[in-house]
Amino acid sequence: MLLEIKDLHASINGKEILKGVNLNVDKGEIHAIMGPNGNGKSTLASVIAGKEMFHVDSGEVLYKGKNLFDLNVEERACEGIFLGFQYPVEIPGVSIASFMRAAINEQRKYKGLDAMDPFEFMKYMEEKQTLVGMTDRLANRSVNEGFSGGEKKKNEIFQMAMLQPTLAILDETDSGLDIDALRIVAGGVNKLASKDNAIVVITHYQRLLDYIVPDFVHVLADGKIVKTGDKNLAKELEAKGYDWIKQHEGLE
């Protein structure tokens, strides 16, 4: 099993957010996590990625059989965990090419490999640009500076293509996207999904799952996963709303 989450409890500023999350994710799988605002979806993603603002109160998370909490943020990234942000940050003055070369060479250093030489890197970058439809116009700009919402999300999919993570967590990557941008981002995710990696998509809406078809859909409410199903569960949620889940599972 690639990722095993066992009875995970986590809080921020003394307020408990995650109240006993259990989840298994393996290679070759796409998982969707849905649920109402403020019920722990983004907190779960942040805890896996290692954001220090959240405190793990109890529980266990194993990644490739290792205790994830023994690894710092940088080590988790080098081990192949990628987090796509709901609101990607801008880094003025740092080109996407420079940013990605530094990130890739840090991964290679962690694995005991030599740094990628400039010629090799540019060839590799061009291949990934073509794969996800990233234009030179975007690739030569500073990281996310002045980008539209769709451009920022496309840049994140490009970063994912470059880094080839084993576990990619996309936190509301459909937030603020029009239908054309949504199709482009979803198309990139589908191209990057393989038997050697796993993708976890966090979303409010079923519309993203019209383009990225999950193997499993989980509903996270009141700090825990209360229901799991296939892609049809997302359609049921779209039709009945989250109040239906709360009533069905006795959460209110």
From TrEMBL:
<dbReference type="InterPro" id="IPR010230">
    <property type="entry name" value="FeS-cluster_ATPase_SufC"/>
</dbReference>
<dbReference type="InterPro" id="IPR003593">
    <property type="entry name" value="AAA+_ATPase"/>
</dbReference>
<keyword id="KW-0547">Nucleotide-binding</keyword>
<protein>
    <submittedName>
        <fullName>Fe-S cluster assembly ATPase SufC</fullName>
    </submittedName>
</protein>
<keyword id="KW-0067">ATP-binding</keyword>
<dbReference type="GO" id="GO:0005524">
    <property type="term" value="F:ATP binding"/>
</dbReference>
<dbReference type="GO" id="GO:0016887">
    <property type="term" value="F:ATP hydrolysis activity"/>
</dbReference>
<comment type="similarity">
    <text>Belongs to the ABC transporter superfamily. Ycf16 family.</text>
</comment>
<dbReference type="InterPro" id="IPR027417">
    <property type="entry name" value="P-loop_NTPase"/>
</dbReference>
<feature type="domain" description="ABC transporter">
    <location>
        <begin position="3"/>
        <end position="247"/>
    </location>
</feature>
<dbReference type="InterPro" id="IPR003439">
    <property type="entry name" value="ABC_transporter-like_ATP-bd"/>
</dbReference>
<dbReference type="Pfam" id="PF00005">
    <property type="entry name" value="ABC_tran"/>
</dbReference>
